[in-house]
Amino acid sequence: MEWLTELITTMHWGAVAQIIMIDILLGGDNAVVIALACRNLEPKQRRQGIFWGVFGAIALRVVLITCAVYLLQLPLLKVVAGLLLIWIGVKLLIPHDEEDKHIEASTKVLSAIKTIIVADLVMSIDNVIGIAGAAQAAHEHHQTLLIIFGLVVSVPFIVFGSQIILKLFDRFPIIVTFGGALLGWIGGGLVVSDIFMAEHIPQTNVVHYTACVVGAILVVLIAKMWVNKQKAKKISS
C-alpha cells in the first residue's frame, strides 16, 4: 500500500480538478449523442449500448490524449495547442443557436456503440487538447494515470449529470465564464512552456503565471468583443 500512499501525496490534484472541469464543460454534447444513438434500442439493449459505447469512447480518448501528451514534447506544438485552447475557450463563451443533431439512431446495439465511438472521436478534439494541456502540470510519471483517473471520474457527470449541469450553467453563467478562462489559463501556460519558447523566455513562476493570466483574460475579452459585435450587427439590421 506504500505505492498508493505515495501516489496520493505526490499527485497533482489541481490538475485532476482541471481535467474533470474541462471534461464536464466540453462533454455536454457527448451525452446528447449517446441518447440519440440509443433512442431506438430496447431498454435492456439501451443500457448495453450506453455502457459499451461510453467505455469504447473513453478508452479511445485515453489513447489519443496519451499520444497528445507525448507529442506536446515536440518544439512549437505546445504553442499551437495553447493557441487552440484559447480559441476553444472563446468558442465556449460565445452563445450559439441550437443546431439539429443529425445522429443516426440504430435498432442494433453494435451499430449504436459504433455511432457513439465515432461521434465521440470527431467531437473530442477540444477535449483531447484541453486534458493533455492540464496533464502537463503533473509529474511526467503521473500524466497517463492522471488522464485515466480524470476521465473515469468525469464519466458519471457526462452520462448522468449533463442535464443538471446544463441547468446550473443557465442559472449561474459565471461557471461557464470560469471554464472558458480556465482553458485560456492552461493555453497561456502551454505557450510559454514550449521547448522552443523556453530557449528565448526565462522559465520562472512569474513568467508562467503571467502567461496563464494573460491567456485567461484574452479568452474572456475576445468572447465579450465577439458578443458585442454580434449584438451591434443585429441592432443595425
UniProtKB/TrEMBL annotation:
Predominant place of localization: membrane
Cellular location(s): Membrane
Keywords linked to the UniProt accession: Membrane, Transmembrane, Transmembrane helix
Membrane topology: Multi-pass membrane protein
Keyword Transmembrane annotated: yes
Pfam families hit by this protein: TerC
Family affiliation: Belongs to the TerC family.
Name of the protein this chain belongs to: TerC family protein
Organism of provenance: Parasutterella secunda
